[in-house]
Amino acid sequence: EDTRFLGSNTLIEPVIEDNKAPVFVGELDATFDVETAKTTLDWEEGVNDENLSINIYRDESEVDIIDPNSIVATVDASLSSFEIEVPQGEHRRSIYAITLQDALGNELSQLTG
Length: 113
Prior knowledge:
By secondary structure, the protein is mainly beta. 0% of the residues lie in helices and 33% in strands. The strands form two sheets. A three-stranded antiparallel beta sheet has the order 1-2-5, with no helix packed on it. It is elongated. It starts with 28 loop residues before the first strand and ends in an 11-residue tail after the last strand.
């Protein structure tokens, strides 16, 4: 066994590892406007934290784990709503989800009810 690293600690400051994802708690409402062909997502309240962003996802069916390829947009966490333009002819049932992501990229992809 290699015991070279079992000596005294030479770190001046402790190493802090952040691997905990921020959790969004709230409700997400989606409203489609036929006249403007836009869907408005509203999650009621933003978060004032410059280290957080909100990822918006869209899928055709309910999922338990978010597919990273289904991302629609990334917006500032201080926002509380976002408009998505729906291309002509793409009117279908869509399921939306949002997640919080911190500056280190930590994000929950597991959806809970």
